[in-house]
Amino acid sequence: MDVTERQHIDAVRTRLYQRYPDLDPSTVDGMIYAAHHRFDGCRIRDFVPLLVERAAIRALDNTPPTARREFRNAVTAPAL
After folding, report:
1. Known Gene3D superfamilies for this protein (predicted)?
2. What is the pTM of this model?
């Protein structure tokens, strides 16, 4: 991955963190990682960040509501 692609993937990550604030960031990162590595070995890389974002959004939209609630509760729970 070249510098430009890395910058675009970082921008995708930022957008997805904002779009899914109720999900654990590691879940978002995992979806990005999985989607990005689908394109390993592809010679033409121009549209990889766009395709990664679309694939990650599809996967994250299908994340069970319980995972969202669990993370939200963990974040808002008072520290003991």
Report:
1. Corynebacterium glutamicum thioredoxin-dependent arsenate reductase, N-terminal domain
2. 0.79
Quote the tokens at residue 1: 């991955």
Query: Which residues are within 8 A (CB) of 23 and not within 5 positions of it... i.e. 6 or more apart?
Result: 60, 63, 67, 68, 71
Whether 28 and 63 have beta carbons less than 8 Å apart is answered as no
For the segment 16-43, what is each residue's pLDDT rounded down to a tens digit? 999 999 999 999 999 999 999 999 999 9
User: How far apart are alpha carbons 42 and 73 in whole angstroms?
Assistant: 40
- Determine the Cα–Cα distance for residues 1 and 27; give it in Å rounded to an integer: 22
In the predicted structure, residue 74 carries a pLDDT above the cut 90: no
